[in-house]
Amino acid sequence: MITGMHPMRHFTFLTSITILLLLSPLVAKATEQQLLNKLDAFLYGASINDASVHNTFWHEDLVYTSSGGTRFGKAELMKGVRETGPIVKTEVTTWFSSQDVKVRLYDHLAIVNFKLVAKTDESEKYYLNSGTFVRKNEQWQAVNWQATKAAD
Predict the structure, then answer these.
(1) Residue 49 backbone dihedrals phi, psi, to 5 degrees
(2) Under 8 Å CB-to-CB from 120, ≥6 apart: which residues?
(3) What is the fold of 30-149?
(4) Three-state SS for 138?
(5) Which residues of 41-58 are buried (b: 16+ CB within 10 A; e: fewer)?
(6) CA–CA dist 113, 77 (Å, integer)
(7) HSE (CB half, 13 Å, CA atoms) of 41?
(8) What is the C-alpha to C-alpha distance for residues 6 and 12, in angstroms, rounded to an integer?
(9) What's the angle, vertex CA 144, arms to CA 40 and CA 135, rounded to 5?
(10) Is this model's pTM higher than 0.85 or not?
(11) Where's the DUF4440 domain (predicted)?
(12) Which of 59, 72, 88, 97 has the most CB atoms lying inside 10 A of its own CB?
């Protein structure tokens, strides 16, 4: 027993710790699912070039490294999205989706690695993407992004 602690308080303390340890995997699984849902919603929104989806997905301090070897921030990315404008669903030429998604959680930080699939009527291209997400006010946003063309 912890010195100077009343036996009932000791029991309550140990019970609280036990409950936290038991709930921890459930919280992690729920957080992982939240990130997976966010990624899926983003990829759909990126397919139709939805500026509001981009705006909520990317953190203000974003550093984006493209598969073409250029690096830019959120302001430049959003400028390109707004200039292109939204795409009507029936006119989308490339649909984005993900495969082999892996999520690693570290308190208020998450690393999401996945294979991006860019599918057109004629082909499928693959990219290996890595995103670093930060959580602020219970919202996850990508603060760092790396896109690399996958080897054939």
Answers:
(1) 55, 50
(2) 93, 94, 95
(3) Nuclear Transport Factor 2; Chain: A, (3.10.450)
(4) coil
(5) ebbbbbbebbeebbbbbb
(6) 20
(7) 16
(8) 10
(9) 70
(10) no
(11) 49-141
(12) 59
- Quote the Cα angle for 65-152-112, to 5°: 40
Are 53 and 37 in contact by the 8 Å Cβ rule? The answer is no
Q: What is the pLDDT of residue 10?
A: 55
Note down pLDDT in tens along the chain; length 152 residues. Answer: 556 665 666 566 666 555 545 545 545 778 899 999 999 999 999 999 999 999 999 999 999 999 999 999 999 999 999 999 999 999 999 999 999 999 999 988 999 999 999 999 999 999 999 999 999 888 999 999 999 999 98
The token pair at 8 is 């009932």
Report which secondary-structure segment, H or E, holds 83.
helix 74-84
